Amino acid sequence: MTRIDVRDLPPSERHATIHAEFADLDRGETLELVNDHEPKPFFYELQAEDPTFDAESYEAEQRGPEEFVARFPKTTASSVVHLDDLDETPHAVVFPDSEPKTVRLRLAAGESIPEHQHPDRQIVLYLVSGEMKLDVGDETRDIETGDVVRFDGEQEVAPHATTDSTALLVLAPRATDAD
């Protein structure tokens, strides 16, 4: 476990120092922080900004009048989301604020999404259930449960559900020439 005592640091330097130490941790490791107050503001900051922070396992205790010890663990594994737990329709972001953008699309039979683009993205669509007609550029593809389609987000795309359908889309940032 990595331990850092920030009580002697100027308050203006504490968060940046703690962020740097947390960033250096491997998955499953914990940063133990000693501070002169419970670091709840930092807890909220880390929870909002770093998806590797395991907020549910956070612990803090007061050991003295000016000694608080808090443990900031990193998650041990990737996040798990059950698609049926996502309520938004027709689409729901599976892992908010994470790349690549992952979206669950649910359409009832006869529903469709108007033609649109995802500039600067490469798209992979996996049809979890149902049947769709997928317009991509000048082509229309009939896809069914289990099919995987890859296409360039610069093309116009429009999914049309022929039966109740659920798809998982991964919208990856397009690699640049520098990549």
Automatic annotation (TrEMBL):
Chain coiled-coil ranges: none
Domain DUF2249: 4-74
Family matches, as InterPro entries: Cupin_2, DUF2249, RmlC-like_jellyroll, RmlC_Cupin_sf
Domain Cupin type-2 residues, every copy: 105-170
This protein's name: Cupin 2 conserved barrel domain protein
Lineage of origin: Archaea, Methanobacteriati, Methanobacteriota, Stenosarchaea group, Halobacteria
